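so my prof wants the structure for this chain in the tokens format not the other one, which i didnt know existed until like an hour ago. anyway here's the sequence
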Amino acid sequence: MRRTGWWVIMLGCLLAAVPQVSAVMPAGLQLERVLTPKEGLSHPVILSLAVGPEHVYIGTRKYLNVLKKDGTITHWTPENSKLKFLMIPAMAVRGHELWTTCRSPVAGGGTYRWDGLQWEWFEEIKDDMQSNYVSCFHVDDKNVLWIGTEDQGLNYYVHETNPFRKFGYLATKKGIVSNQIMCLTSRPGELWIGTVAGISVYRGQEGDRALVTNHTLTSGLPADRITALAATPERVYAGSTLGLQIFENGSWRLLGKEAGLADAWITALAVDGSDLWIGTARGLQVMRGGRIEPPIDHRDGLPAHQIRCLAIGRGPDGGTRLYVGTERGLAIFKRL
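here's what i got, hopefully its the right format
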């Protein structure tokens, strides 16, 4: 028995000594830079990303970080901005404006707009806001800003065309499937709303009636808890806890681990031309030509394999960059 145990131990040591084989980096992609607290981030956990014409905005568990074109990082805190709390769970850039929210472990901080000169703070009730607990932002093809909340539906900014109101709203009373909004995306003429109970597609108003189509389990949606959304004119991608759902030619199909996903729980999606970037708890993957390639993870230079958020934007040289937020920092990939 001793000898058998000795060989088992030796075999385990030999297996542990075999180097792990990492995935091949997808063609046309190069890791350019990794940012962690050592490089100036205020916190390693990245919660949200937004790419503007001048800066990249990085929301973390502690402060909003601003990555400038010269590569330096500054922090916006409750001390030097109107942000009330430390956590920055959602952001969007609209033209030269940054829209964001903040959270504490127990309280929601409302909605904030930075126009390049000053901050404006919007709160529920007094500013026509549905809730201070904001989950996501999205700017559609008509430059309308949409704000998803955790339990009260959506707001959209109308003050530029309606001097008497700041925000309109959509909620279950107007036909959407749930007021618990998880994520948003759009394609021309359609706002896609991901919720905990399915997807609603909003196509505008017809008089006082909201034009809404709902996708749920009963109508053919494979999984109803939607974790991420991305869209092209031809198809819509919906991340879920069971895999990647694709809406094309009027019907849904589900891709899971059997299709190459490293993990079935999708955490983030981003479209870059014909590429779909997929974030999971087990790395970053790309779908090209209908094929999901092997994951990129910490062995390939990512700060961690748990992907929190993704963004596509322009770098200082005008080239396309893929920004990948993880549990331990931000990775910046250059498209070649």
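also thought this was worth mentioning. The radius of gyration is 21 Å.
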